[in-house]
């Protein structure tokens, strides 16, 4: 949200709608991040609600996201030309369970 908000093209829109949002520890929006509910409770004891799309993603997609962000330091949504063939090949192997071919 921060990156979106500070981009020049989005500044005017963000300025008009940001007053509708409130940051608090009551709810955490983790996007597509995989999370452990026990860790959330331990680290954020006042959190009541966690929003994450990770439960709707396949195991292969979750593993691939962790690899691209953790090892390659690239967000999957940043479609850099050099990484797409690697990501697509890895996804095919992960999806079919052929982990040793990666």
3D structure, described in words:
- This protein is mainly alpha-helical and 102 residues long.
- Helix content is 43%, strand content 6%.
- It is built from 5 helices and 2 strands; from the N terminus they run ααβαβαα.
- It has helices at 2-6, 11-17, 37-43, 59-70, 84-96, and strands at 27-29, 49-51.
- Helix 3 links the parallel strand 1 and strand 2 (49-51).
- The longest helix is centred in the C-terminal third of the chain and has 13 residues, at 84-96.
- It is flat and about 50 Å long.
- It starts with a helix and ends in a 6-residue tail after the last helix.
- The model has no long low-confidence stretch (mean pLDDT 77).
Topology:
Layout: H1 2-6, H2 11-17, E1 27-29, H3 37-43, E2 49-51, H4 59-70, H5 84-96
Parallel strand pairs: 1-2
Helix pairs in contact: 4-5
Summarize the structure.
The chain is 43% helix and 6% strand. The protein is mainly alpha-helical and 102 residues long. Helix 3 links the parallel strand 1 (27-29) and strand 2 (49-51).
Average pLDDT for all residues: 77
Low-confidence stretches: none
Assembly type: single chain
Structural class: mainly alpha
- The counted number of beta strands is 2
Biggest sheet: strands side by side, in what order? 1-2
Count every helix, treating DSSP H or I runs of 4 or more residues as helices: 5
Kindly estimate the percentage of residues that lie in beta strands according to DSSP.
5-15%
Considering DSSP H and I runs of 4 or more, what fraction of the residues is helical?
Answer: 40-55%
Helix-strand pattern: HHEHEHH
The major β-sheet equals:
2 strands, parallel
Terminus-to-terminus distance: 32 Å
Instruction: Identify the overall geometry.
Output: flat
Radius of gyration: 17 Å
């Amino acid at each position: 949200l921060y990156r979106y908000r500070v981009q020049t093209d989005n500044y005017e829109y963000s300025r008009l709608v940001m007053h509708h949002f409130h940051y608090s520890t009551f709810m955490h929006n983790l996007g597509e991040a995989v999370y452990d509910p026990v860790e959330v409770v331990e680290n954020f004891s006042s959190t009541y609600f966690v929003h994450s799309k990770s439960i709707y993603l396949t195991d292969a997609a979750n593993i691939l996201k962790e690899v691209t962000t953790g090892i390659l330091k690239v967000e999957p949504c940043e479609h850099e030309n050099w990484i797409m063939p690697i990501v697509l090949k890895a996804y095919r192997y992960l999806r079919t369970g052929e982990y040793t071919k990666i």
